[in-house]
Amino acid sequence: MTGIDVIDRCIIALLQVDGRLSHAEIGRRLDIPEPTVRRRLKRLLDDDVMQIVAVPNPHRIGYEIHAVIGAKIQPGLVDDVVMRLTAMRQVRYVGITAGTYDIVIEALFRDNEDFRAFLTVTLGQLEGLRETETSYVLEIAKRSYRIGLAADIDDDEMSSNDRQLLRRCRRELGVLEEEAEALHAANGRAGQVERKN
Question: Which long-range contacts (CB under 8 A, 24 or more apart) does 155-164 make?
């Protein structure tokens, strides 16, 4: 795929706020035909520009421990270690980095026993691993998988139609974000009431 245009960016941006939006709803919000949305979304998915997935809150489904681990690897073995780490069920992110560590790992664990076994047994027996530093995440202040696709567009050299679409997209993103915040606040209040009872 050579690139994505304003319509593609707006479709992705809306789905980042609410991945359940139908083709018709996206078309209505952007004032474009539903078949256009369907065709473009299929292309974006087929070309691996995006994916639509459910992202659960780990703490709500039983993963109490969240850790970030920096690892130093023996020269020449980074790819082997990465391949082994990506296959591990606890590991949700592996990044090859430049700097203090060769690899950064993000992992989730159900309890301290699971966490200890991963650090001492699983990582401890990993060939090529020289050193690790583990950070236990106490609280997540922000978790976002959103990229500011509609916010990052420079509209100076855009056609008037694209500029108009971008304004509409930004307006609809604001509406969707307000709706999501209201729902989140309502769910939070409901959860507090439930815990009191």
Answer: 158/6, 162/5, 162/6
Total domains, the chain: 2
Q: List all residues 6 or more positions away from 75 whose beta carbon is below 8 Å from its beta carbon.
A: none
Mean pLDDT of 123-130: 92
Question: pTM of the full predicted structure?
Answer: 0.72
Asked, for residue 118, whether it belongs to a domain, the answer is yes
Tokens of 78: 């980074």
pLDDT at 142: 81
Statement to judge: residues 112 and 88 lie in one domain:
yes
Q: Region 33-45: what's the mean pLDDT?
A: 96
Q: Are residues 44 and 86 in the same domain?
A: no
Q: Is residue 143 in some structural domain?
A: no
**Residue 189: which pLDDT band, with cuts at 50, 70 and 90?**
low
Q: Note whether 63 and 130 are same-domain residues.
A: yes
Enumerate long-range contacts of 129-134, CB under 8 Å, 24 or more apart: 129/71, 129/72, 129/73, 129/74, 129/81, 130/71, 130/72, 130/73, 130/74, 131/71, 131/72, 132/69, 132/70, 132/71, 132/72, 133/69, 133/70, 133/101, 134/67, 134/68, 134/69
Give the range of the structural domain holding residue 75, as residue numbers without chain letter: 58-136
What is the predicted pLDDT for the residue at 1?
A: 41
- For residue 112, tell me if it sits in a domain: yes
